Amino acid sequence: MQKITAAITAVGKYLPDYVLTNKELETMVDTNDEWIVTRTGIKERRILKGEGKGTSYMAIRAAKDLIKKSNINPKDIELVIVATATPDMQAASTSAFVASQIGATEAFSFDQIAACSSFLFGMSTAARYIESGKYKKVLLIGADKNSSMIDYTDRATCIIFGDGAGAVLFEPNHENLGLQDELLKSDGVGREFLHVKAGGSILPASIETVTNKLHYVYQDGKTVFKYAVSNMADVSDKILKRNKLEKKDVNWLAAHQANKRIIDATARRMDLSEDKVMLNIQKYGNTTSATLPLLLNDYEEQLKKGDNIIFAAFGGGFTWGAIYFKWAYNYNKNK
Ligand code: UT7
Question: What angle is formed at CA 144 by the lines to CA 134 and CA 182, rounded to 5 degrees?
C-alpha cells in the first residue's frame, strides 16, 4: 500500500486591526521601546478590541481566509481542531462554534490545549488522522486572545503578548511530503513558573480571586527563558541528528515567537544562518498558539515544494517539542 503522509496544502490568517506599539505601552507601564526591542525583538502587537469578541472571532476569520484562498468546500472538512490557550468559554468547545460558523457542518471538532505548544502538538494530532487513511481534510487553527488574560499594569507580561489567529489545512500526500518526524515533550515542573492561577478547577472565580488579580498570566520570565532556550534548542538539535540532517539540508526554522533571543539561541545551536529563520515577532509579539501558522502565512510566498522546515515550540506546563516537516507546494498567487 502507498504510504500516506500528512501535508499542509493551504494557509490562512487573521490579525485584529488595533496595533499596540511599544510607544503606547510606555504610557501604560514603566518601560521603553529600547528595552522591549533589545530584550524581546517586539516592536508592536495586535489587540482584539470590542465587546463579545473572543478567540473564535479570530479563528473563524483565519479559517475563512484559508477557505477563500484554497477554494475548498467547507462541507468537505472532516475535522476542525482549534489549538488555543484562551478558549471562548469553559466547558463549551470553541472548535464546535468555529466549525459551525465556517460551514464545516459535516466535521467533528475539538480544542487542543497545551499552552504555547498547542499548535505544534495539534500538528501531530492532525497528522495522525490523515495518516490513518480515514480522513482527507483536517483543518488546524491556532488562535489566541492573550489580551483577555494579560494585566496591562504588569510590565513583565504586557509587553510580550498579542492576539491573532492562523489556520492550516492538512491533506494526504503520496510523495512523502508533510510531517516526517516529531519529538514532543512535557514536564510539570514548569507549572509554577507560568500559569493563570484562578478560573480553573483548583481555584474557581470568586470576588477574592478578582480582587487579587489572579485571573491574569503570571510568568517568572527569567526561569521560563532559561528552560525555553535549553529545551527548544535541545529537541531541535536532536531531531536534526536522528534524521541525519545537516545544516545545509534545513531550509527554514519556524520557531515559536516568544522572544527573539530564544529563537536566536535555537538557530545558533542548529548552526543556521539568519536568512533561514522565520521571524514575525516584531509585528505580532507572542500570539501563543498562532505564532507558527502566522509564520507560514507570512513566508508562504518564499516556501518551495520539498523545503525542509524545522518547527519548534516551548510553553507553559512546561510543554515543548520539534517537528521535521517537508513543505508540499509552491506559492501560486492566482490560486
Ligand atoms: O511563550 C511561552 C514561554 N514564554 C517565554 O518564552 C518568555 C520567556 N521569558 C522572556 O522572554 C524574558 O524573561 C522577558 C522578556 C519576560 C524578560 O526579559 P529578561 O531579560 O529576562 O528580563 P528580567 O526579568 O531579567 O529583568 C531585567 C531587568 C530588571 O531590572 P533590574 O532588576 O535588572 O534592575 C527588570 O525589573 O529589566 C527590568 N524589566 C523591565 N524594564 C523595562 C522587566 N520588565 C521590564 C520592562 N521594561 N517591560
Answer: 45
- For 25-84, the pLDDT digits (tens) are 999 999 999 999 999 999 999 999 999 999 999 999 999 999 999 999 999 999 999 999
Nearest CA among 179, 162, 158, 159 for reference residue 170: 179
- Let me know whether 157 and 186 are in one domain: no
160 in any annotated domain: yes
Asked whether residue 14 falls in the same domain as residue 46, the answer is yes
Q: What's the 146 CA to ligand 1 centre distance in angstroms?
A: 18
Known catalytic residue: 158?
no
> Is 333 a member of any domain?
no
**Over the stretch 283-331, which tens digit does the pLDDT of each residue have?**
999 999 999 999 999 999 999 999 999 999 999 999 999 999 999 999 9
Out of 176, 194, 227, pick the residue that ends a domain: 176
Who lines ligand 1 at CB under 6 A?
A: 31, 35, 39-40, 116, 155-156, 159-160, 221-222, 224-225, 228, 258-259, 262, 286, 314-315
Residue 27 sits in a domain of what CATH number?
A: 3.40.47.10
Catalytic, 116? Answer yes
Please tell me the distance from the alpha carbon of residue 315 to that of residue 115, in angstroms, as a whole number. 6
Return the C-alpha cell found at 192.
Answer: 509554577
Domain that holds residue 140: 5-176
